[in-house]
From TrEMBL:
Source domain of life: Bacteria
Native source organism of the sequence: Streptomyces thinghirensis
Listed Pfam families: DUF3046
Protein name per UniProt: DUF3046 domain-containing protein
InterPro entries, per database record: DUF3046
Length: 62
């Protein structure tokens, strides 16, 4: 989880990473936010892959 949140913060910035994770609903996560998907038992690596795809995270940051 630590690596996941480090990557989220690196990509979105410390002020927006949690806001994005709390507010952005993604169909690829079953209509959930990042927080909801993690709480539902999704693996952090799978959630990060979805975030990367949906938000076009550059390969070097994945």
């Amino acid at each position: 989880m630590t690596v996941f949140w480090e990557r989220m913060t690196d990509h979105f910035g410390p002020g927006y990473a949690d806001t994005f994770a709390r507010d952005h609903v993604m169909a690829e996560l079953g209509g959930r936010t990042v927080h909801e998907a993690l709480d539902a038992g999704w693996d952090a690596k799978d959630v990060w892959r979805v975030v990367c795809t949906v938000m076009n995270v550059p390969r070097e940051q994945r």
